[in-house]
């Protein structure tokens, strides 16, 4: 199987797996226990916290470990918004966020908060003017994902951060697809909080992190929570966090090398496929994650392409999950102005650090075979 779905999940790296196994045996104590086994686990946990703080140029007091990107988004948003609701009830996000962000805002809408869902242009980028016009005296928080997981468009966080900071509004970003692939510096980007997930960067599944500036007030989502300074319930997964830290370090230290690799594979793929007049590139031409390539094969459902490619030994993804037989149109594709039928055509190819030029060559050749069969059937 040639795996081209690294934006969905990655295999654990050798070093992360080694650290996970060793830590599971050495740091098995509950980090909240006061005996020596607990203290050892706590020392390891705090070392990981310090390292994550360095990765984002933040303070270690602001790092909270969670079960993944979804939980980080949910807890960060809830904890911040609830603590600042006396100032106002207006929130701003975009129409192309991950469901963990969208669903949190829908929940808050039901509780009486007013949410502005910023539209995006045909490349998936928000318009700064829309953001400026949406801000009111009542706005307490803006949440804009760093990169879209379906088409890879990267939002201008530093520019957004400047606008938002000037008005004293909190700024959260879902950085699950970008952390370890794009340098993230909370001070330069003006971020008060962000979310990260381990399984997107060769760490174990079920682990994540969240950064909330220690200078910002937040309230525990569930009163009485004691772990992670009240941020999250549940015994902290120290071995998972240690492995996540090692995996993250490998990615953060190799951003340039990996991006050069992704860019050359991306060029190879796009130059061969987009010249096929049935294949359309979706996403921003320049402000895009090199490892995510959104494509649309005209007239063919993404789900069909995914299954055909699976039959030939390739794992890719469609924009969204199948719902009761008929593929649901991708929310991102609808937001960038595609019709529901066009939206269902999206396929996502996402590259990994071990993806080779030969794998991409084979993929191009097999997708061309599928396309030529389609063409002959359709014409
Ligand atoms: C942009 C984005 N945010 C959040 C998540 C959720 O992360 P996790 O699977 O760790 O909950 C994902 C996963 O697909 C994602 O792509």
Description:
The chain has about 375 residues and is of the alpha/beta class. It has 2 domains: about 1-10 and about 255-375, Aspartate Aminotransferase, domain 1 (Alpha-Beta Complex); about 15-250, Aspartate Aminotransferase, domain 2, CATH 3.40.640.10. About 40% of the residues lie in helices and about 15% in strands. The protein contains 13 helices and 15 strands. It has a 7-stranded mixed sheet with strand order 2-8-7-6-5-3-4, sandwiched between helices. A 4-stranded antiparallel sheet has the order 9-10-15-12, with helices on one face. The longest helix has 22 residues, at about 355-379. The mean pLDDT is about 95. Pyridoxal-5'-phosphate binds next to helix 3.
Helical fraction: 40-55%
Task: Give the number of DSSP strands.
Answer: 15
Ions, cofactors and other ligands present here are: pyridoxal-5'-phosphate
Biggest sheet layout: 7 strands, mixed
Relative strand content: 15-25%
Return the CATH architecture of the largest domain.
3-Layer(aba) Sandwich
Structural class comes to: alpha/beta
Whole-number count of domains:
2
Topology-level CATH name of the largest domain: Aspartate Aminotransferase, domain 2
Distance between the termini: 31 Å
Fourth-tier CATH superfamily name of the largest domain: Type I PLP-dependent aspartate aminotransferase-like (Major domain)
């Amino acid at each position: 199987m040639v795996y081209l779905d690294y934006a969905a999940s990655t295999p654990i790296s050798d070093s992360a797996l080694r650290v996970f196994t060793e830590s599971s045996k050495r740091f098995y104590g509950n980090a909240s226990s006061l005996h020596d086994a607990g203290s050892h686990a706590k020392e390891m946990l705090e070392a990981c916290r310090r390292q994550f703080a360095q990765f984002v140029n933040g303070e270690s007091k602001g790092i909270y470990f969670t079960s993944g990107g979804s939980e980080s988004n949910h807890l960060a948003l809830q904890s911040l918004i609830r603590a600042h609701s006396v100032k106002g009830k207006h929130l701003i996000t975009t129409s192309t966020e991950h469901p963990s962000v969208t669903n949190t805002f829908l929940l808050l809408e039901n509780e009486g908060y007013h949410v502005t869902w910023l539209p995006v242009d045909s490349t998936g980028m928000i318009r700064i003017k829309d953001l400026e016009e949406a801000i009111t005296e009542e706005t307490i928080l803006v949440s804009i994902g760093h990169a879209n997981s379906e088409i890879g468009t990267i939002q201008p966080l530093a520019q957004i951060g400047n606008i938002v900071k000037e008005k004293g509004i909190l700024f959260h970003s879902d950085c699950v697809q970008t952390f370890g692939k794009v340098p993230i510096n909370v001070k330069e980007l003006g971020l008060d909080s962000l979310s990260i997930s381990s399984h997107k960067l060769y760490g174990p599944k079920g682990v994540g992190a969240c950064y909330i500036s220690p200078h910002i007030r937040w309230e525990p989502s569930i009163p009485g929570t004691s772990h992670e300074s009240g941020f999250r319930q549940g015994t902290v997964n120290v071995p998972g966090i240690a492995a996540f830290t090692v995996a993250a370090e490998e990615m953060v230290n190799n951003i340039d090398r990996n991006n050069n690799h992704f860019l050359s594979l991306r060029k190879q793929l796009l130059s061969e496929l987009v010249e096929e007049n049935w294949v359309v590139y979706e996403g921003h031409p320049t402000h895009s994650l090199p490892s995510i390539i959104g494509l649309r094969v005209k007239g063919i459902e993404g789900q069909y392409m995914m299954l055909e490619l699976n039959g030939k030994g390739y794992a890719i993804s469609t924009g969204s999950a199948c719902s009761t037989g008929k593929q649901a149109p991708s929310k991102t594709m609808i937001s960038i102005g595609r019709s529901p039928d066009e939206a269902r055509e999206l396929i996502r190819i996402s590259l990994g650090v071990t993806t080779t030029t030969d794998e991409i060559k084979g993929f191009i050749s097999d997708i061309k075979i599928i396309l030529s069969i389609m063409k002959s059937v359709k014409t």
